[in-house]
Amino acid sequence: MEIDTPPSSSIDQQESSSSTTPKPNTENDKSPLPVCILVLGMAGSGKTTFIQRINAYLHSLHRPPYIVNFDPAVHELPYPCNVDIRDTVNYKQVMKQYNLGPNGAIITSLNLFSTTFDQLLTILNKNEQKHEHFIFDTPGQIEVFTWSASGTIITESLGATYPTVVVYIMDTPRSSNPITFMSNMLYAVSILYKYRLPFIIVLNKTDIIHHRFAIEWMNDFELFQQAIEQQHTYSSDLTRSLSLVLDEFYQNLRCVGFSSITGDGCKEFFDAVTDAKQEYDQVYKVEYDKWQKRREKRDKQKQEQDLKRLKDDLRDDGDHLIGHKNLNDIEDDTDDENDDESEKEDNEEKDDKQFEQYMKKVKH
Asked: Taking the domain 35-292, which CATH number applies?
């Protein structure tokens, strides 16, 4: 497939501009790494407007973030974007060439983009001394980060390189329905336990309805049960059962009320990000380093075992290597050939004698 890649794509521009940037000094090398904020959420939950608001908030503090857009189907972005997937992958061309619908084309576009994710990491590395936050906008197709390969590549690559926080945006007015609230929580818990990165739930659109009810439902199981009792359907019965399972999930969950219109909750959100970064350093990074050491140890042991097996194969019966024949076997083969020739000569002499005797009898 031919991916539409303009000559002046954002990745190429970033690489060319970054190549002239002088290397940071030793003091800068000791500065903390920027925090990656990966913004996820259902379609229409307000991810893009949320990023617009926190971008404006950080600019007001003179701490501009570095923003990456992963949504190939968005028409316009209300914020300046440093790296844009639309400059690398043509969403409409993917949909046309692969005969895909809108959702399938978005997932395929992200899969194609993830094959060049190492280039994005290189760009981020060159800009990590200039920014405190890397913010990533994602499409509303949440399945990208629940089962698609591209979501795993993006999340694990960022988590292995930088302090990474997953931010799940919830539509607070729609989540006032207990069943919709439980559906959102199931998505959130599936993403949390899939990647095990520090997690923040942002209850967006609090300018329409306050998020107090959601906090109470998380903290008080009986209040949530009372809200469900008004409905008697299969989905409500299932929601009632699932609420017992998710009770432990709520205990250590960071929840922040936020309004992308008024800007309420910006400070509380970045306080939660700071707390999540500490969790990354103390829990996730420690566990990841242990896992990396165990993996390196397993790879080293496997390499040593393979090398030992090869040496044993070379040592044992070394004369029977492919293309080489034992000299004793060659001598035995020669003796067998000589015996066969002698036996053949004896048989010929015997036949000659029998023929001569037969001829004498005929003459007489």
From this structure: 3.40.50.300
- pLDDT value of residue 336: 56
207-211, long-range: CB < 8 A, 24+ apart: 207/259, 207/261, 207/262, 207/264, 208/172, 208/173, 209/172, 209/173, 209/176, 210/172, 210/257, 211/172, 211/255, 211/257
pLDDT at 355: 60
Residue 281 pLDDT: 92
pLDDT at 59 over 90: yes
CA–CA gap between residue 214 and residue 24 (Å, rounded)? 46
